[in-house]
Design brief:
Order of helices and strands: HEHHEEEHEHEHEEEE
Strand content: 15-25%
Shape: elongated
Helix content: 10-25%
Structural class: alpha+beta
């Protein structure tokens, strides 16, 4: 008998990445008839049934899938495009994104756009965002000035514990928490590096110069998953 974790992983594969491989009729919003999914799960795990899928979705720690009117979908994490439905989120003052130090510096220069996904994935709390950071030296979390971005036209959608949007312009990328500098960790403001003030003219002895700021690396944002295509029906 498959355990809950195995079924969850299978649902993610079906609904986020490879619906065609399992013969699923997925609509523009990511919904698939529940019975189709149950039948596909049973092909992999013979003893599994609808009750097992429903038990998984009813668990309090489950935030990745939902069932609406006999259809099931993944709420986020798709490697193919899905339309957003429902009312946009009333944006809070700040949202958060778990990231790496390298990508955080890129975001501060260029803004945040998805790469192999179609939506930027944000969190409503700094703690949840930290859990999503892939920085090997410890969590790196970047703040997003969500309310200001919404007032300028950015649209946000709540999907479980994740908030989705198409992009974050650079002017709404805020401070970065957790960047390591030498042996210490500190908050680093996003955005272009500060320019050094010109040194005063020397009189009898030259004043010591400041250390130049660390330049920000350039390059594309990388989320680490290659795009897979699914056929709309």
């Amino acid at each position: 008998m498959a355990n809950r974790r195995s079924i969850s992983r299978l649902l993610s594969l079906m609904l986020r990445h490879r619906p065609d491989e399992f013969g699923l009729d997925i609509d523009a919003y990511g919904f698939v008839p529940l019975q189709q999914v149950v039948d596909a799960v049973r092909e992999r795990y013979e003893e599994a049934g609808e009750a097992d899928v429903l038990e998984l979705l009813d668990s309090p720690d489950q935030h990745r899938f939902e069932i609406v009117e006999g259809k099931i979908r993944a709420l986020y994490g798709h490697s193919f495009f899905v339309e957003m439905d429902g009312e946009p989120l009333v944006a809070p003052e700040v949202l958060y994104m778990g990231t790496t130090a390298t990508d955080a510096r890129r975001f501060g220069r260029d803004g945040i756009v998805p790469n192999d996904r179609f939506y930027v994935h944000l969190s409503q709390s700094r703690e949840v965002a930290a859990e999503r950071s892939r920085e090997p030296d410890g969590p790196v979390v970047i703040e997003v000035m969500a309310r200001a971005a919404a007032e300028a036209g950015t649209v946000f959608y709540a999907r479980g514990e994740v908030v989705l949007t198409r992009q974050i312009p650079v002017e709404f990328v805020g401070p970065v928490h957790g960047v390591r500098t030498g042996a210490s960790r500190r908050v680093v403001a996003a955005g272009p590096p500060r320019r050094r003030a010109p040194a005063p003219e020397a009189t009898t002895a030259a004043a010591p110069t400041e250390e130049p700021p660390t330049s920000r690396p350039e390059g594309p944002i990388n989320y680490g998953r290659k795009l897979r295509k699914a056929t709309r029906r």
